[in-house]
Specification:
With 298 residues, the chain is α/β, with parallel strands linked by helices. It has twelve helices and seven strands. The chain has a five-stranded parallel sheet, with helices on both faces. The chain has a two-stranded antiparallel ribbon with strand order 6-7.
């Protein structure tokens, strides 16, 4: 395992070595310029990100689940991405799950020692009955977090496909996982504070993974989220617009279809587009594996 001192993310950044002696505007300009490097670093990893997405989709199609796992900021970013999937894409809560070292309490209060708990890594995955149709995405800015590394090793004993997201090239995580996504963002503005550029890179990668997987699964038509859950007034209005646009119907017809479908946007679209009742619309979707685009083109 590389020493912490040798990690790129632990090196001092010459660009920011005097940030304590500049004006607030100059400080923010330095931070902003460094942040602009992140998107380029992520862009270089698109081939690896695409491979991970294709693998996740394949596992999803066989009933598998996606697990994000990490400690500290990395783990919290996994939580943020996972919890958005049910309301945005209509997935069940178990389909995309996040595992944070230290458990739920670590979301709100730092538990730095949790990242070294290798026993907990195995226990946390075993409790979720991880199996070989699932995919594990381990997130670690350093690529050497013991909790994440042990989780990958345990997953491999179960023949689980693994993906690693880190920001240090040639890390242990890179070597262990089936697909390594490694946006190299360089030294942080505040030395070693990987919640900054490394955290931003990880968030961008996670956004790309979950959103693209859902597009490939047919939960997006055009650029519209057709499985959105109607949990508040904003989303109810959005759903009405989506149904009207995709089905090429009036807003009145869209509202009626949403009501009769029990708020299921994809069912309402088929109802409005093909002039079917809810039961027949459900069957039409079922016959094409819930692929909405295929259903409305039949």
């Amino acid at each position: 395992m590389p020493s912490i001192d040798s990690l790129l993310t632990e090196q001092p950044n010459p660009t920011s070595e005097k940030i304590d002696r500049v004006s607030t505007t100059e400080l923010l300009t330095i931070v902003n310029r460094e942040d602009q490097l992140v998107a380029t670093a992520v862009e270089k990893e698109i081939p690896n990100i695409a491979s991970a997405i294709d693998a996740i989709v394949e596992h999803f199609q066989h009933g598998g689940r996606l697990f994000y796992l990490g400690a500290g900021t990395s783990g919290r970013l996994g939580v943020l991405d996972a919890v958005e999937c049910p309301p945005t894409f209509g997935t069940t809560p178990d389909r995309v799950q996040a595992i944070l070292a230290g458990g739920g309490d670590a979301m709100w209060a730092s538990q730095e020692g949790a990242e070294d708990d290798t026993v907990a890594a195995q226990r946390d995955l075993a409790e979720r009955e991880l199996h070989n149709e699932d995919i594990l995405v381990a997130i670690s800015a350093s690529g050497r977090t013991p909790y994440a590394l042990e989780a990958v090793k345990f997953a491999k004993t179960l023949d689980v496909f693994t993906v690693g997201i880190s920001c240090n090239p040639k890390s242990d995580l890179t070597a262990l996982t089936d697909i390594a996504i490694t946006p190299v963002v360089g030294p942080e503005i505040i030395t070693g504070s990987t919640r900054m550029k490394a955290g931003t890179a990880q968030k961008l990668v996670l956004n790309m993974i979950s959103s693209s997987v859902m597009v490939r699964m047919g939960y997006v038509v055009g650029n519209l989220m057709v499985n959105v859950q109607l949990t508040n007034e904003k989303l109810r209005r959005r759903a009405e617009r989506i149904v009207a646009e995709v089905s090429d119907s009036t807003h009145e017809r869209a509202r009626k279809a949403l009501h009769e479908s029990g708020g299921r946007v994809n069912v309402a679209i088929v109802m409005a587009k093909k002039d079917l009742n809810a039961i027949k619309a459900e069957k039409t979707l079922s016959d094409v594996g819930d692929d909405l685009w295929k259903a409305i083109q039949r």
